[in-house]
Each structure stands twice: as C-alpha cells, then as structure tokens.
Design a protein that fits this description.
Blueprint: H1 3-20, H2 29-39, H3 45-56, H4 62-105, H5 109-137, H6 141-157, H7 161-180, H8 187-200
Helix pairs in contact: 1-4, 3-4, 6-7
Length: 201
C-alpha cells in the first residue's frame, strides 16, 4: 500500500474514533478494539491493553498516547503524527465551536438537563469498559489481588495514580522474575545422575 494512502487511512481511522466516542479515555477502548484489532488488524488485543497500561502511567491523555503508539508502530514518526492529529482534530473542532456559543447556553435549563444526561451516559460507558477490561486482564489470582489492593489504596488513602501504577508494575516484574527463575541442580544431584544411568545399563 502506498505510504501516503496508509497515513491517510491512519488519520481517518483515528478521526472516526475521536469524533464518535464520547467520554474519552477508557470509553474509547471498545471502538479502538473494533477499528484497530478487528477491522484493520494493526495490533493485537493484548498489545492494545498494553498501550492502555503504558498510556495510563505516562504523561498525556490515554487515547492520544495510544494513537501515537499505534501510528508509530505501523508507519514510524509520520504514522504517529497522522494518528495523533486524527484523534485530536474532531475534539479541537467541536470544542472550538462549543466554546464560541457556550456562554449563551450555560444558564439554559434544557442545556443543564442535557449535560446531566450526558454525564450519566459517560459513567455507564466507563463502567462497561472497566468490566470488559477486567475480564480480559484479570486472568489469575495475582492480578485480582493487585487490582483489589490498588482500588482500596486509591479509594481510601488517596494515593496518586502514578505511584499506584509504578508499585503495581514493580510488583508484577518481581513476581515474573521469581516465577521464571529455575533452581540450579545441587552438586549431589549432578553426581548422582551418572550413577543412576550406570545402574540402568
């Protein structure tokens, strides 16, 4: 595929995601999965979840970080630029248009009721996304324990998100190192092995 055509395809795909998904952040996950994993197969489902995890613990908006990552992975620096521009263009245009007339509607009771309804929908979308994300990510008891402890710490102790993420990441790395470390055979085991083979002969 021609590179310019592919860059425009990246831009258009993320333009649709940025323009049709309300709530941002986690609420974009289902549409990102449909567009990037199912439709175009640019990344795998696990890679998308990894993008979200990395985007959560790096500066900036999760959805934009994900767009930049996917674009760079598929087409280098230009791919990252086109994907990021595609993601932010709808919001930039819509927010600019709204800001121009927002002050005229802020005291309108119908506008206030509409905002209340939108907030409810965004909360529902976030809950749905979190549940789906949990089903795909929490595949073992250790992951469940980390998730529950992180939730309790965030709710009860008001610890900054970045600290929770870094501690959980460190804990996961340590557990992986422990699980993958194979104990070396002792000196006695090395000596006994030839004797056992000799007896069998």
């Amino acid at each position: 595929m021609n590179k310019i055509k592919f860059l425009l395809q990246l831009y258009w795909s993320f333009f649709k995601i940025g323009g049709l998904t309300f709530g941002g952040g986690l609420t974009m996950l289902p549409m990102l999965e449909h567009e990037l994993v199912d439709k175009h197969q640019w990344i795998t489902e696990d890679e998308l979840l990894d993008c979200y995890a990395i985007g959560q613990c790096t500066p900036g908006i999760i959805a934009i970080n994900t767009a930049t990552f996917v674009g760079y992975k598929k087409a280098g620096i230009l791919g990252g630029i086109f994907s990021t521009l595609g993601m932010v263009t709808p919001s930039l245009v819509i927010i600019t248009a709204i800001a121009a007339v927002l002050s005229n509607f802020m005291n309108n009771k119908w506008f206030q009721h509409a905002l209340m309804g939108i907030r409810g929908v965004v909360c529902a979308l976030l809950c749905n996304t979190v549940i789906n994300l949990g089903k795909k990510s929490l595949k073992n008891p250790v992951a469940w324990i980390i998730a529950v402890i992180s939730l309790l710490v965030a709710l009860l102790l008001k610890v900054p998100t970045i600290i929770i993420v870094l501690v959980a990441a460190t804990f996961g790395i340590v557990l992986d190192l422990i699980n993958n470390r194979k104990p070396e055979p002792s000196v006695n085991e090395k000596i006994e092995e030839p004797k056992e083979e000799a007896k069998n002969e």
